Amino acid sequence: MPLMYMYMSPEQATGGGEIGPASDIYSLGCVLYAMLSGDPPYTASPMAVLTKMLTQRHTPIREIRDTVPGPVETALEKALASVAADRFGTTEEFAEALAEALAVEGPVGIKGKSSVSVPLARIRCSTVGYANPQIGYAKFMEFGGGPYL
Fold first, then answer.
1. 42 lies in a domain?
2. Does the residue 71 lie in any domain?
3. Does a structural domain hold residue 148?
4. 120-138: per-residue pLDDT in tens?
């Protein structure tokens, strides 16, 4: 995948530090950021992305899309922490933080370029990852996802 570098954790991109669950959580945070904003946290050439990742903070999601709930932004910021130890300890913790952030009655949706309303009963959190991105995308679409939430 040619654009995979945009979703790498700082420790993956630099080759330093342990690559483990914290790296996966960072990558999941990048995917969520892209789903909400339309772009990954950093966009540029591979070397420029690495430089930005190590020297700049990404633009907070609510500066791009002010309709994102504050608790979702808080969970996203923790997932995208530069230091692995500052991220969620497990994918379950990340999923729980997002579920709590969206714990409201009735349908939820974030208005923007495209709008989707997903009943909470259809939102499922799973710790099972999909190695094949097409399968992951198909599962996302199965639960009513779209290019933007």
1. yes
2. yes
3. no
4. 434 444 434 444 445 555 5
